[in-house]
Design a protein that fits this description.
Elements: H1 3-78, H2 81-146
Length: about 150
């Protein structure tokens, strides 16, 4: 064998190894995809019943809610004008009672605060009057000496 044939054989062998490794990698990849697809199909089959049950329960709940809403609407339709007026007047009375109670509570708290401030002012005056008298007496005593 000459050097060129050895070079060609080395090149040819390297190319064959390269293509074989690509083919092996491809087959491994293909096998892993097939295995994963099989596992996914099994999981899908296992979860199909759970999914159907979920959607059936959801549909039942929705149907019940729609039925409840339609019954409520029928009751409202059957309500007479008098019933409507009674209900609205009761709501208005409740609101007025709440407003009146709130006003009374507010007025009571304001009166209480005013009484508290008056007491504080009174006690402050009681404490300051003797102090002011003492200061005036001291100024009267000291004024002849200062002039």
């Amino acid at each position: 064998m000459s050097d060129e044939e050895k070079k060609e054989n080395v090149f040819e062998k390297g190319f064959k190894d390269f293509t074989k490794s690509i083919q092996d990698g491809f087959y491994k990849f293909q096998n892993s995809l097939e295995e994963q697809a099989e596992k996914n199909k099994e999981a899908w089959d296992a979860n199909t019943s759970k999914t159907k049950e979920f959607f059936n329960n959801t549909q039942k709940k929705w149907d019940e809610q729609v039925k409840k809403w339609s019954n409520d609407l029928k009751q409202v339709e059957n309500e007479t004008k008098e019933q409507w007026d009674l209900r609205t007047s009761k709501i208005k009375q409740d609101i007025e009672k709440f407003q009146d109670k709130t006003r009374e509570d507010f007025n009571k708290s304001i009166k209480s605060a005013q009484r508290g401030f008056l007491k504080i002012y009174f006690y402050a005056l009681l404490l300051l009057i003797p102090v002011i008298i003492i200061i005036v007496v001291i100024i009267m005593i000291l004024s002849p000496f200062l002039s």
